Write the structure tokens for this entry.
Amino acid sequence: MKVVIFGAGRVGRGLLRILEKQRHTVIVVEENKDVCEEIAVESNATVINGDATTPELLDEIKIEGMDHVFAVTGNEETNFLASVYSKQAGAKNVISRVSEAKHSLLLQRLGVETVISEFTLARDLANRVSSPTIFKLLNPIESNVELAEKKVDGGMAGKMVADVNRQQKYNIVAIFHEGKFHVPGADAMLQEGMKIIIIREK
């Protein structure tokens, strides 16, 4: 997948490391020239030194072809402008870092998903306590297994879950169909257009 990250602070760089391990194509936009030089040395990302709110820079990136855009700079206004532009330009999924719930509601009405840093941190810390093993399972740094989603295509359609699991050497743990998740039995039949959630070793 093609991904743009606006901002290379702690959040942006952490996100970059995870995405590169998953072999996604990443573009990073950062104002600080020194930080850009560091990232260029330590990663394979395309690094652009510039202001994420500059129209010429945004046009150059070709946002309309991006699968995911993350606006995670430390500046609320920059995140707002970059994420709204990206959504209007046609990026498939846009996620913005915000600091206040009211800004989150506004962006959501504009079709932008949001992450409120304090809420996310609190949730992650709580998950460490209440479900430590699950937290480790889902943490890409600690775990040797991963969850992934796939769209059922012609090669899978009409086959039972058990047969696909055996052929592909992974386990289907959920099916998303007609807006709902289902836990399938081994004899459940896959249909074209469904999405399956799988768990597999990296």
